[in-house]
Amino acid sequence: MAYDPNMRASDADRDRAASLLREHHAAGRLTPDEFSERLDRVFAAKTMGDIDSLLRDLPSIDLYRLPDAALTRQPRQARPRRRSEAWRVAWGSWFTCTLLCFVIWALSGMGYPWPVWIAAPWGAIMLGRWVSGSHPHGGSRQLRGPGDQDQGQLPRGDEDLPGRPR
Fold first, then answer.
1. Is 63 exposed, middle or buried (0-12, 13-18, 19+ CB in 10 A)?
2. 41 in a domain, yes or no?
3. DSSP string covering 34-87
4. What is the mean pLDDT of residues 132-137?
5. DSSP conformation letters of 106-117
6. Are residues 84 and 51 both part of a single domain?
7. 141 pLDDT more than 80
8. Are residues 84 and 133 in the same domain?
9. Domains in the chain: how many in total?
10. Are residues 50 and 15 in the same domain?
C-alpha cells in the first residue's frame, strides 16, 4: 500500500508518534515546551501528513529494535565471599571482643561464666550469616558501580573499608 499523507491517522498511529516524541524528548532533542506542544498536536492530528509534519525535523528511531549485542549488562548482585576482607574483619571483631570478655572474666575470679552470653549469640548470628552467604553487617546493601555518587548507601564488602585504597 502506497503512503498517502491524506490518509486518516489511527489511534495506534498517534500512540506510536507520541512514543517517538517521548524518546526524542528523553534524548534531549526537544525542550519540554516543544515536547508538550508537539504531543498536543499529535493527539489532535487527523491525517498521517499531520503526524509526519511533527516528526519531519527529527531523526528516525526504531522503537522496536533489538538490543545491540555490544551492550554490557550489569552483573548480578554477587554475594560476599566467605573469605572476603569484610568477613575477616567481622570474625576478627568477634574473636577480639570474646577474648577480652574472657580475660576480664578470668581476672575477676572466674565466677559465673557470663562471657558465654556475649560470645554465643553473637557467634551464632555471625555463623548463620556466614553459612547463608549474607553480608556480615546484615541488610541489603547495594554495590556502587565506578563513578556512581554516594546516595547515602552504606559500604558493602571489602571494596569500601576505611583505610583501604579504592
1. exposed
2. yes
3. HHHHHHHHHHH--BHHHHHHHHTTS----TTPPPPTTPPPPPP-PPPPTTSHHH
4. 76
5. HHTTS-S-TTHH
6. no
7. no
8. yes
9. 2
10. yes
Containing structural domain, residue 117: 79-140
Is residue 125 domain-shared with residue 90, that is, in the same domain?
Answer: yes
d(CA 118, CA 101): 8
Is 145 domain-assigned? no
What is the per-residue pLDDT across 27-83, written as a single tens digit (0 to 9) for each? 888 999 999 999 999 999 999 999 989 888 988 876 666 555 555 555 555 555 667
pTM tops 0.90, yes or no: no
Locate 86 and state its grid cell.
569484610
- CB of 7 closer than 8 Å to CB of 52: no
Q: pLDDT tens, 77-113?
A: 555 566 788 888 888 999 999 999 999 999 998 889 8
Distance CA 54, CA 36 (A): 12
In a domain, 109, yes or no: yes
Which residue bears the cell 551464632? 124
- Residue 121 maps to a domain: yes
